[in-house]
Amino acid sequence: MNEYFEALDEEMAGAIDAFGKQLTAVRTGRASPQLLDSVSVEVASYGAAMPLNQLATVTAPDARLLVVNPWNKGTLPDVERAIASAGLGLNPSNDGNVVHVPIPALTGERREELVKQVRRYAEESRVRVRRIRREYLDLFKSLEDDGEITEDDLRRAQASVQQSTDGAVSKLDTICTDKESEVLDF
Question: CA 70, CA 93: separation in Å to the nearest integer?
């Protein structure tokens, strides 16, 4: 039965990690190369859409600027267009060699929108964790129905699953609160 609990913990950790990755795309007013991780660039010469991080190096020389240095200078207009149309509220410009992406200060209204977005991501992650809990509770119930575990084992397994779920939800809440503070306080 330990292998089930290990798998449960891995899935819960995966949901928490996925939430953390979603939050990297939430702009806090501070330049972070991860802000552009979600940008996909349609490159005509390659004939496909590619993640920006596979086409260029993204650096943050200061708190209010990102610099995107494409490896192939021919993709510079495509990179600039992709960043502008990514829905991040950014206005890039290029100097012929690199794309400069100034990070504007967030307005109070935009901060509230971002907090709502963070909360939406957190709720989606909580739903994911609860779905994992349901799967494992059903699994242990079927094991008990098949006679592979006793009723006492089922109760202990249910308690353990709930404990893992509570721990995962608590971590999600902490991460959410920290990100909200970061968005509101910067």
Answer: 13
